[in-house]
Amino acid sequence: MKKALLSRLSLSFIALAALSGAAAAAPAGTYKIDPAHSVAYFEVGHAGGISRFMGRFNDIAGELVVDTPEKSKIKVDVKVDSVDTRTEALDKHLKSPDFFNAVQFPMLSFASTAIALNGSGEGTVAGNLTLHGVTKPVTFKLKEIGSGNGPRGDARVGYTASATIKRSDFGIAYGIPKAATDDVDLRINIEAIKQ
Predict the structure, then answer these.
(1) Tens place of pLDDT for every residue, the chain, 195 residues?
(2) Smallest Cα–Cα separation from 142: which of 167, 163, 111, 165?
(3) In angstroms, how far is CA 133 from the centroid of its own chain?
(4) Which InterPro entries match (predicted)?
(5) Bond into 177 cis (ω within 30)
(6) Hey, which of 33, 40, 172, 186 has its CA 20 to 30 A from 160?
(7) End-to-end alpha-carbon separation of the chain, Å?
(8) How far is residue 53's CA from residue 9's CA, in Å, rounded to a whole number?
(9) What residues does 53 pair with on adjacent strands?
(10) For the chain, how big is the Rg over CA atoms in Å?
């Protein structure tokens, strides 16, 4: 009985170890962001913070270099004109000079300066965030979601990054705090294809 139990436990441990190995880090190389499977979200407190409101940007592009932490890089470009709250009038207001001023500042971008990931694929990515014509250092929490082959056999990797910024730091102070809070949660979900 004990031998059978130990044997089952050993087999379970081997299976678990095999699964852990399957979740290994993404293969090194340059990856291009797949815009069809990547998105940038923002969430803000509405009406002085009585509720949470979320919007997204539909046009995202960029590139990743997956290597050792010292050589890895992330570059993301988001067209602010692609803002989508499911409400046309609000989208128009967000594109106006009150908020993003999409005509004068068409791009939100992030370029990494340092990446740290542990063995579980969790860590941080520090870099420069440019929004509304202002560039500030921001550190995102970073997590590798997975890696493997896509439906057509191409090598892919997925990450999610999240951070909280103050929009007033980027010159977007309209309606603080009555219309919307100063703190904005940002989240970027990335799926990228190896080149």
Answers:
(1) 444 433 433 333 333 333 333 345 689 999 999 999 999 999 999 998 899 999 999 999 999 999 988 899 999 999 999 999 999 999 999 999 999 999 999 999 999 999 999 989 999 999 999 999 999 999 999 999 999 999 899 999 999 999 999 999 999 999 999 999 999 999 999 999 999
(2) 163
(3) 20
(4) Lipid/polyisoprenoid-bd_YceI (IPR007372), TTHA0802/YceI-like_sf (IPR036761)
(5) yes
(6) 172
(7) 53
(8) 48
(9) 44
(10) 20
Q: Are 126 and 141 in contact (CB under 8 A)?
A: no
Nearest CA-CA partner of 177 in 187, 163, 167? 167
C-alpha span between 138 and 165 (Å, rounded): 8
SS3 content of the chain, % helix, strand, coil (to 5): 20, 50, 30
How far, in Å, CA of 78 to CA of 111, rounded?
A: 12
The token pair at 184 is: 């904005």
Residue 149 CA to residue 153 CA, distance in Å, equals: 5
Sign of the four-CA dihedral 161, 167, 171, 175: positive
Residue 163 tokens, joined: 């951070």
Q: Measured in whole angstroms, how far is the alpha carbon of residue 141 from the centre of its chain? A: 9
Give the three-class secondary structure for 139.
strand
pTM of the model: 0.85
CA gap 53, 86 in Å, rounded = 11
